[in-house]
Amino acid sequence: MSLQTNSMTQSPLVCLRELNKEYGKFTAVDHINLDIKKGEFLTFLGSSGSGKSTTLSMIAGFETPTSGEILLNDASLIHIPSHKRGIGMVFQHYSLFPHMTVRDNIGFPLDIRKVAKDERDQKVDEILKLVQLEAFADRRPSMLSGGQKQRVAIARALVYEPEILLMDEPLGALDKKLREELQDELRLLHKRLGITIVYVTHDQDEAMRLSERIAIFKEGEIVGLGTGKDLYRKPPNAFVASFLGNSNFLKVSVTGSASAMLNKQHIEVENVHEVPIDQKAVLMIRPENLHILTPEQAEKEPLMAGFNQLSGTVNESVFLGESLTCSITIPSGEKVVSKNIATEQPDLAPGSTVFIRWNSKLSSLYSKWEQSDINKNAA
Amino acid sequence: MLLSHGSLGWKLKSSLYVITGVIAAFLALPIFFIMALSFGSSQWLVFPPPSWTLKWYERFFDNPQWIESAWTSLQVASLTSIIATLLAIPASFALVRGKFRGRDYLYTFFTLPMVVPVVIIAVAVYGTFLNLGLTGTLFAFVTSHVIIALPFAIISIINSLRLFDKSIEDAAVICGAHRIQAILKVTFPVIKPGVISAALFSFLVSWDEVVISVMMASPNLQTLPVKMWSTLRQDLTPVIAVASTLLILLSLFIMIIASFVRKQSNHR
């Protein structure tokens, strides 16, 4: 994957080149290439063992790459030990120094750098204010709540003004409500300080909420890179489509540059990945892009250009408050799930016949897929 | 909990108290007897003592041999404690952090002196030091005591090092501290209770050690337990009870410090 060909206005802050990490026969990170832009919020998203944390550890210097290169401002980091890289990092379990007060925790990087006492105290006070912990400055970490501990960890990582802040699942140990609060705080902090943040998480909502760009990791490779919006709307492959959000996968065979056959019925497709003719493929449609119509509605509303229509039988519809999901069996025997704003939906009794429509521009076609991708069907 | 204290009937509860009391008495009574006898006037350790006296304490402190052996014990135990702890620190780091083949075997090897009968170790070091002509020296005492104290020191430090989240040390490193600096400023203060109890337990192991010490001892250099042992073989005198009492008091004192250190670390 050549990701560095994009014309960039400035050279990237960090470049990973053919970065590789092997543990014996196991390849944790498989020759990845990635440019991290100055000032961006980039998230490594993937399940456990996908190589995201190992990549972060290599940037921090806790793991040595088997081969490849890490550049920071065009200079190699490979032979520079962690403590000289000038990188900030926030760990999964806060990792505060239990025997020091909040103030001394935050002052630690400055003490190590032998910053004069006046300047040190001033900087610590400033950052305490930034993370709203002035009142807790003289407490030990054990006297703080999880959210406060994480704020201390962030303050400690920011006090020496690193060029880049690495965050390794920093909110994983917190409950959902607090996590969302801190996500909002973190996004605001990033906007205010303009610092480059590389964030690791397995939580796609968190990735969407926080990041400007997301790198999706799978088995040591980056299989998707882009804004959350682009990755969700136009997933580059079936894995990303199934990993981010819910999706329906239908088996089709390609018949032309913009057409395919779905169970003896011609449909229109957007063939952006240029799947060759007669090739078997899967068609991905997000549940919210499937519109359900009763036979009467279908008769009244003509099919718009670029839209496809299939008939189907309702299995079940579930009312979820703001939305309504509906599971439908189509003539091929495959099941699809739709999800629509509840007020727009007609009542659908199980067993009733309906028509489903979708805009072909909002579907994606893939010639390669793994069974595990399409098994994670929305149904 | 299945057996919560409150849910037990009064009969069961009171019988549990009685059983606990009996066991505690079984463990503690000999100590009380010996302490009481050290203040008793009877030459033949009659119990209950016909009257109370401090004359056996006078005898103990007037006899340079007793004082000297107590001093030797203190020296040997202190040196053993320091050396065993200093050796246990790097060994523990290697056993917890190291990634090398046979690490688990090495751990078993280091803790072996705890399992092997002391008399076997005693004969082995005795033979060695006899060959080297070193028996009866402070060096021989300390070296042989370090062998049996080391497992206790290693286990104590390893436990606290395993509980220590290494990412705290990594955090110090990414903050700009050299690895050694991070260990000294962050890891050490956190595992300090483990290191202190390693030192205290090593001290105790050496302090009441008798099997090895008997073999290492010479007429000029013997520890308190050895002096007691050899005195007992000649005659039974209440001065032995005095020595025992002093031995127990120091051990008790160290146990109290150890539990205090543990409490401090739990407060974190």
Automatic annotation (TrEMBL), chain A:
Coiled-coil zones: none
Cross-referenced InterPro entries: AAA+_ATPase, ABC_SmlMolc_Importer, ABC_transporter-like_ATP-bd, ABC_transporter-like_CS, Mo/tungstate-bd_C_term_dom, P-loop_NTPase, Transp-assoc_OB_typ2
SUPFAM superfamilies: MOP-like, P-loop containing nucleoside triphosphate hydrolases
UniProt GO BP: putrescine transport
Domain (ABC transporter) ranges: 14-244
Record-level GO cellular component terms: ATP-binding cassette (ABC) transporter complex
Record key words, sorted: ATP-binding, Nucleotide-binding, Transport
Gene Ontology MF, one: ATP hydrolysis activity
Pfam families xref list: ABC_tran, TOBE_2
Superkingdom of this protein's organism: Bacteria
Entry-linked PANTHER family: SPERMIDINE/PUTRESCINE IMPORT ATP-BINDING PROTEIN POTA, SPERMIDINE_PUTRESCINE IMPORT ATP-BINDING PROTEIN POTA
Designated name of the protein: Putative spermidine/putrescine transport system ATP-binding protein
Species whose genome carries this gene: Marinomonas rhizomae
TrEMBL record, chain B:
Pfam family membership, one: BPD_transp_1
Gene3D superfamilies from the UniProt entry: MetI-like
Record-annotated membrane-spanning stretches: 16-39, 76-96, 105-126, 138-158, 236-261
Principal location listed in the UniProt entry: membrane
InterPro entries, alphabetized: MetI-like (IPR000515), MetI-like_sf (IPR035906)
UniProt key word Coiled coil: no
Membrane topology: Multi-pass membrane protein
One cellular component term from this protein's GO annotations in UniProt: plasma membrane
One example of a Gene Ontology biological process annotation: transmembrane transport
Annotated localization: Cell inner membrane; Cell membrane
Keyword presence, Hydrolase: no
PROSITE patterns associated with the record: ABC_TM1 (PS50928)
Keywords per UniProt: Cell inner membrane, Cell membrane, Membrane, Transmembrane, Transmembrane helix, Transport
PANTHER family: INNER MEMBRANE ABC TRANSPORTER PERMEASE PROTEIN YDCV
Similarity annotation: Belongs to the binding-protein-dependent transport system permease family.
Record-given protein name: Putative spermidine/putrescine transport system permease protein
Organism from which the protein derives: Marinomonas rhizomae
